[in-house]
């Protein structure tokens, strides 16, 4: 039970970081060396096509993504709200946990309109790093193959 609670806490802290727009802290949820973050459509996964919408294979790439979001690109302001459920530890090995969970991301625009931005599942490989759980891999499998607005913030 303690492991389940620690995993759920990691996921909760992860989505709060995004929802509260504390994105400069987002890369810290990943291991420093050799992490992987990708957003891929369910359709591509089912067809065995590895093409991802977003692919980062280092913590430096995660940092660059946030720096670009903050400094290089201009986007209309939006607020996100994540709902994470069905957190299931699928595998426990000596060096990692394989975890799957479901997510829904709601997006509210400046005009107050709220809509479903993305739904899908997280497939995570979580490791213990200096006594703290971190993501070695986070694969976001989006149910839909199109996103109606720019994919700005992490999912």
UniProtKB/TrEMBL annotation:
Q: Which SUPFAM superfamilies match?
A: NTF2-like
The record ties this protein, via Gene3D superfamilies, to: 3.10.450.50
Q: Would I find Magnesium among this entry's keywords?
A: no
User: Cross-referenced CDD domains, in alphabetical order?
Assistant: ring_hydroxylating_dioxygenases_beta
Statement: the UniProt record of this protein carries the keyword Lipoprotein: no
Query: Which residues does UniProt assign to the signal peptide?
Result: none
Q: Return the InterPro entries for the record.
A: NTF2-like_dom_sf, Rng_hydr_dOase-bsu
Any idea which UniProt keywords this protein has?
Dioxygenase, Oxidoreductase
Record-level Gene Ontology MF annotations: dioxygenase activity
Q: Which family does it belong to?
A: Belongs to the bacterial ring-hydroxylating dioxygenase beta subunit family.
Protein name per the record: Anthranilate 1,2-dioxygenase
What is the originating organism of this protein? Rugosibacter aromaticivorans
């Amino acid at each position: 039970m303690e492991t389940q609670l620690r995993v759920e806490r990691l996921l909760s802290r992860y989505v709060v970081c995004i929802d509260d727009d504390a994105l400069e802290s987002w890369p810290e949820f990943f291991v420093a060396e050799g992490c992987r973050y990708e957003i891929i459509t369910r359709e591509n996964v089912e067809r065995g096509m590895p093409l991802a919408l977003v692919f980062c294979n280092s913590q430096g790439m995660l940092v660059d993504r946030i720096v670009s979001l903050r400094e290089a690109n201009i986007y209309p302001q939006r607020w996100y709200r994540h709902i994470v459920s069905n957190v299931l530890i699928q595998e426990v090995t000596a060096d990692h946990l394989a975890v799957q969970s479901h997510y829904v991301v709601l997006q509210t625009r400046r005009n107050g309109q709220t809509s479903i931005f993305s739904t899908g599942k997280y497939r995570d490989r979580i490791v213990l790093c200096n006594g703290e759980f971190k993501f070695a891999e986070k694969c976001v499998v989006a149910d839909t193959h199109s996103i109606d607005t720019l994919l700005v913030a992490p999912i």
